[in-house]
Write a structure and sequence with these properties.
Blueprint lengths: L2 E3 L7 E7 L26 H4 L17 H8 L12 E6 L1 E3 L7 E10 L1 E2 L2 E2 L7 E10 L2 E8 L3 H9 L16 H13 L10 E4 L5 E4 L7 E3 L6 E4 L16 E2 L4 E7 L4 E7 L6 E8 L18 E6 L2 E3 L1 H5 L9 E3 L5 E7 L9 H4 L5 E10 L6 H4 L2 H5 L11 E8 L7 E4 L11 E4 L11 E6 L9 E6 L4 E6 L4 E2 L3 E4 L9 E8 L5 E7 L4 E7 L9 E6 L2
Antiparallel strand pairs: 1-21, 2-22, 3-9, 4-33, 5-8, 5-34, 6-7, 8-9, 10-11, 11-12, 12-13, 14-15, 15-16, 16-17, 18-21, 19-20, 22-23, 23-24, 25-26, 26-27, 27-28, 29-31, 30-31, 31-32, 32-33
Bound molecules: ligand L7D5B6GP, ligand LQ5KYKQO and fe (ii) ion.
Ligand LQ5KYKQO binds next to loops.
């Protein structure tokens, strides 16, 4: 470990080396928008299914309230409402024009079903995975959604109760023996969820895998019809239970971090296309705290993997608890400080002596941009469904920014953490970031993310951040919540921002639509209404046509 940073962070990262010289699936079925198939899930009718999602009553006449408060009290956003049925597929009516070149499938995964019978889950991250598919073909758009058939989801359906430990939910035990059995299963990982609800990636060999933070929750799906094909079984015997929710996936590799909860540290591992075997690149020992910091995501450059060690650390006691704490399975240890470990991808060595690790004599440091929640883990609890569903109209979203870590590779023990741009440019809200994937690990200028138009309780804009000009362009529609902006480059594009940004929006009427923005102007070019609003999804990937 080479650098200690005096700030801590929670969030997602983009990164690059700073070089001295760098200053230099189609679906055949096409049906009418009203056609549906599938089955109703967990409950007899929509009222009982959503009984925990009551509208917030207001004793004031609506006209007496400021417009955002009217929206807050009247709406029931589909984003926080369980998906209405197991699956649907059909062609959407497009308003505006989808470019003819946009051809392929955007897959998005996320928690989408938050109840079993009359039992309602507490946290956004607890929901059973709902996959959504937007298939673009010659200006036409087909949408499909389907539940991921994890063991956790199937067992809940079969037994009508929670059977595995989710992000915050823990199965209830009928007797002491069952409780002891569950504890034993916790250490073997058997009682942990495989609910793959965080993201979906396409490996270099074409396989499409849904992921969550438990390793057993890696599930292969068919991108054409969203069918669950089975578990992705890692053939190595690395033996840890959790990994980063955001592996780095390119045509040539799958890189991820495995926190070691027993002997505090992290394994940096790599898997080749066509293989199920992760090989260890190197190991990082923790510098502070009783356990590794949460590694939801991590940054890479062309030559380095950066292992963030956050003061928000996994906590064995909280894992054992039946009731969630405000920080769930984690614990906040500011006294343990935060660290950025920089590992050379080729050698697996930590970059601690600059003279040994200068690449072509030009690398002077690593720049890491991060959605940074002002060293405050409160955001985790803000994502409780009750908070999201019962917004009063007051400004409730904690501040976040693009934090830029400047990590020197000259042996200095301290780096710097600065604002990449004035956070007011994006309303001091910042998460769900992405960049043009062709710029992964290289010098990039633009990032796309969800920002805030305040007051709000959740990021409600789509923002294009120009890190060179330190400016942001923002898309906003009153009362709506857009999902992760996903960038698709125009074939043959020369400019970094030549392409389309796709998002799925939950609107104030409880409905939803797919939204396409021209990335360069950041103006809307098309939208297509869904048959009904869809739950908020987290992360996605682009699957080009075969
Ligand atoms: C959706 C999202 O961003 C994060 C999901 C995280 C999950 C489901 C984490 C689950 C966990 C367990 C079930 C036990 C072990 C700890 C931890 C990885 C937090
Ligand atoms: C939904 C979210 C943060 C919103 C805060 O502003 C983060 C989700 C990360 C999951 O992958
Ligand atoms: Fe994430």
């Amino acid at each position: 470990m080479a650098f200690s940073l005096s700030y801590s962070t929670i969030g997602n990262y983009g990164s690059r080396s700073s070089m001295a010289a760098a200053n230099r699936g189609s679906s055949d079925s096409s049906s009418n928008i009203n056609d549906t198939f599938g089955q109703t899930i967990f409950g007899k009718n929509s009222k009982s299914r959503e009984s925990g999602v009551a509208r917030v009553a207001t004793d004031l006449p609506l006209v007496a309230r400021p417009p955002w408060k009217q929206v807050a009290t009247e709406r029931k956003l589909a984003a926080w409402t369980s998906v209405q049925q197991d699956r649907w597929e059909g062609e959407l009516v497009v308003q505006g024009e989808i470019p003819q070149w946009l051809s392929g499938t955007y897959l998005r995964n996320g928690p989408g079903l938050w109840h079993i019978g009359d039992y309602h889950f507490r946290h956004l991250f607890d929901g059973y995975a709902t996959l959504v598919r937007l298939h673009f073909d010659n200006g036409r758009l087909t949408m499909g959604h389907r539940q991921v058939e994890s063991d956790a989801y199937k067992a809940a359906r079969k037994n009508n109760k929670l059977c595995y430990r989710e992000f915050s939910e823990v199965p209830k035990h009928d007797n002491f023996l069952e409780y002891i059995g569950d504890l034993a299963n916790l250490f073997s990982g058997a009682s942990l969820t495989d609910n793959a609800n965080t993201g979906v990636v396409q490996l270099g060999d074409g396989r499409v895998v849904c992921l969550t933070e438990t390793i057993k929750g890696s599930i292969v799906i068919n991108p054409d019809n969203l069918e669950t094909l089975g578990k992705f079984e890692y053939s190595d015997s690395l033996g840890t239970l959790v990994h980063s929710a955001h592996p780095i996936v390119t045509e040539s590799e799958f890189l991820t971090l495995l926190p070691d909860l027993l002997n505090p540290g992290y394994l940096v591992v790599r898997m080749e296309p066509g293989s199920n075997e992760r090989k260890v690149i190197g190991r990082v020992e923790c510098r502070g705290g009783p356990s590794p910091g949460w590694v939801h995501s991590f940054p890479v450059t062309e030559h380095y993997v950066v292992v963030p060690e956050m003061p928000l650390r996994y906590c064995a006691q909280n894992l054992l608890r039946a009731e969630p704490t405000p920080l769930y399975k984690f614990e906040w240890h500011p006294e343990s400080k935060g660290f950025m470990h920089v590992m050379c991808k080729a050698s697996g060595k930590l970059v601690s002596f600059i003279k040994q690790h200068i690449y072509n004599g030009r690398v002077i440091g690593v720049i890491v941009d991060c959605c940074e929640h002002d060293a405050n883990p409160a955001i985790l609890d803000k994502l409780r469904l009750q908070n999201l569903r019962s917004w009063s109209g007051d400004d409730a979203l904690p501040d976040a920014r693009v934090g830029r870590f400047k990590i020197p590779l000259d042996g200095s023990p301290y780096g710097e953490l600065v604002d990449a741009l004035n956070p007011d440019e994006h309303g001091r809200g910042m998460d769900m970031c992405s960049i043009n994937p062709a710029y992964l690990g290289k010098k990039y200028r633009y990032a796309y993310a969800c920002g805030a138009q305040r007051p709000c309780n959740f990021p409600n804009t789509i923002t294009k951040i120009d890190l060179e000009q330190k400016k942001a362009k923002n898309w906003y529609e009153e009362g709506s919540v857009p999902s992760e902006p996903f960038f698709v480059a125009r074939p043959g594009a020369k400019k970094e921002d030549d392409g389309v940004v796709i998002s799925m929006v939950s609107d104030k009427n409880g409905e939803g639509y797919a939204l396409m923005l021209d990335t360069s102007t950041f103006e809307e070019i098309a939208r297509a209404k869904f048959p009904y609003g869809l739950p908020y999804g987290l992360h996605g990937c682009w699957v080009p046509n075969r």
